[in-house]
Specification:
310 residues; alpha+beta; Alpha-Beta Plaits; 13 strands; flat
Amino acid sequence: MQLANYIKDLLYRYECVIIPGFGAFLTQSRSAHIDAGTYTFYPPSKALSFNRQLQTNDGILANYVASVEQCSYELALQKIRNFTGRLSLELSEGKTITLKHIGDFFLNAENTFQFIPSEKENFNTSSFGLSPFVSPSIAREKVDVVIEKETVALYSAKKKTAYPFMRYAAIGLIAITLGSVSGLKIYEGQVEEHNFAEEQKARVLVENQIQEATFVIENPLPTLSISIPKQAGKYHIIAGAFRVEANAEKKIQQLLKEGFPAQAIGENRYGLHVVSYASYETRSKARQSLRTIKKLENTDAWLMVKDLSQ
């Protein structure tokens, strides 16, 4: 099924891909994890699920089919309807439908729709080239320390012999330390008093200089005013349409960082927030820019004609 390949391509780019009249595939990010039972390390991925309730056409799949197959939007919708019609017919006949690299569909004993995602495909583009791997557990050896009885006895004897001398030496060291500490405390006190007095003198001197100083700017610079031209034109190169407005704003910020004069075009008839790469006054300039963007940036970009001044 060629349409299954289109759905797989879109799952790498979008978190929600709706098949009009059938349901929606949803992806959710999942962190890297370890299976302690099999010692297997899994890279970051996206968990794939299917929601039968989301069937309203958002235009993403139809626009992609029309772009790839170079056909009209209406013909692309008809191809999608034919595809979903075959799926529904085969499911009603009790067959299991397999979409390659996506998953399996079937009806259970209660005639309830079921979907089992494929475990072979990772739709997280940041994990490209990474695959699970198995690392065996690390075996640690215990080392027993054995101390001979003769060694312990010799150490005890030396300790008893050296103890009287060490005791008197320790007493002398403590006395010397106490004397040094007392002298040091007296010296620190004198230094603190001297530093405090010098600090007060410096503070008074600085305050007097500040009071005498006068700051005057004889030739102030002229005020600089910058006017930013507003995007105009009714021919818009569309970068995408988003159900959540926050996602549309993130896309705008991303395009602005890349150097595009991106902006929000508003909502389309499906309630999606449309974002443009740029807008143009003439159709010829818009088509020329569209060709460049399709070639270098986004093959799914398309041209919208909308007058924003109305």
